[in-house]
Design brief:
By secondary structure, this protein is α/β, with parallel strands linked by helices. It contains ten helices and 13 strands. It folds into two domains: about 180 residues, Response regulator (Rossmann fold); about 160 residues, Response regulator (Rossmann fold, 3-Layer(aba) Sandwich). Helix 1 runs parallel beside helix 8, helix 4 packs antiparallel against helix 10 and helix 6 packs across helix 7. This is ABC transporter substrate-binding protein.
Length: about 350
């Protein structure tokens, strides 16, 4: 099997996600495939993903990964396996989960989220002929590790432009799930987009939890409370990069008759958020589904990806969704966003990755 390393910017518009809201804590690992004891040391016709905090049903990050797995099952005819996180789990739990998936013959095995990086580094060494994917992390590398990463700051810059143009109060809000470097990329791009569009605008920023507490990605009540505080502070557009917790921010903005901006998936189209969709102005999408699908396809084709695989704005690896007809009707907003997009791609705008 020949292994290739790809360092490129690739992407297409995100596939439509078939999602539903589910509870987040205390889930057990499940194997959706019929494969059992086949060796992971050979190319397998089964692919697996291990979900991040919040699990499948978060209407955001994890569900985007699931969409890629689902597409691979349909288009590539591969069997699939899924493993859910458990509340308060340790690195040892992640190691055990990934090891179990690899032993069952799944290839690739994909960890959804940077928190899987240390575990993947350990397990990948034990299964050198199995490809491991890690989404949103480049700190752990190896010949059989594919680092699937995105230019989140670019999509967030566009969200900042849209928020500044749509705001009537001149005050907007950003809510991050957990204060880690990845989420700071969202904050940095958003704040820069807002300020470049309206230098007099005010950005209220808040984080729900601090590491090692990652529950800020999983608790909608925290997102709702933070959004209410920003609404009380005059914000009329709120952008939450907080996984499942972001649904609480969307609920709060909708209840107040203000705008929310979604993240990762096109949240205007998520069934679990249908009652709030008229107040979801747009969403910053990351084509996690494509990244998952591409990695599975590369293994099936016998040319597994490894190294950094980057998805950027120029190929819609990150993008700003336009599903809401109200957003499409805001010609001044959409024109400003399209100009900003063109300028970023042309490298006339350099988007910061730290606030």
């Amino acid at each position: 099997m020949r292994r290739i390393t790809r360092i490129a910017t690739v992407g297409i518009a995100s596939a439509a996600l078939a999602l539903s809201a589910t509870a987040c804590g205390g889930k057990k690992s499940s194997d959706a495939s019929s494969s059992s004891s086949s060796s992971s040391e050979s190319k397998s016709a089964s692919a697996a993903i291990a979900y991040d905090v919040g699990g499948r049903g978060d209407q955001s990050f994890n569900d985007a990964a699931y969409a890629g797995l689902e597409k691979a099952a349909k288009d590539l005819k591969v069997k699939t396996a899924e493993a859910e996180p458990t509340e308060g789990e340790s690195e040892a739990d992640k190691v055990q989960r990934l090891t179990e998936l690899a032993r069952k013959g799944n290839n690739p095995v994909i960890g959804v989220g940077f928190s899987y990086a240390p575990a993947i580094e350990k397990v990948a060494k034990k299964f050198p002929n199995t490809t491991f994917g890690i989404i949103d992390d480049t700190s752990k590398t190896g010949s059989n590790i594919a680092n699937l990463v995105f230019n989140e700051e670019q999509g967030s810059y566009l969200a900042g432009v849209a928020a500044a143009k749509a705001s009537k109060t001149g005050t907007v809000g950003f809510i991050g799930g957990v204060e880690v470097p990845l989420i700071k990329k969202f904050q940095a791009g958003f704040e820069q987009g807002v300020k470049d569009t309206n230098p007099n605008a005010k950005v209220l920023s808040a984080y729900l939890t601090q590491p090692p507490d990652f529950s800020g990605f999983a608790k909608p009540d925290l997102g709702k409370a933070a959004a209410k505080g920003q609404l009380d502070g005059g914000a009329d557009v709120i952008y939450a990069a907080a996984g499942l917790a972001g649904s609480g921010a969307i609920e709060a903005a909708s209840s107040a008759g203000k705008w929310a901006i979604g993240v990762d998936s096109d949240q205007y189209n998520q069934p679990g958020l249908a009652k709030y969709k008229d107040h979801i102005l747009t969403s910053v999408t990351k084509d996690v589904s494509l990244a998952v699908f591409d990695l599975i396809k590369s293994v099936k084709d016998g040319k597994p990806e490894s190294g950094e695989v980057r998805y950027g704005l120029d190929k819609n690896g990150v993008a700003l969704a336009d599903s809401n007809p109200q957003y499409k009707a805001m010609s001044d907003v959409t024109a400003a966003v399209e100009k900003a997009k063109a300028d970023i791609i042309a490298k006339k705008i350099n988007v910061k990755t730290a606030p």
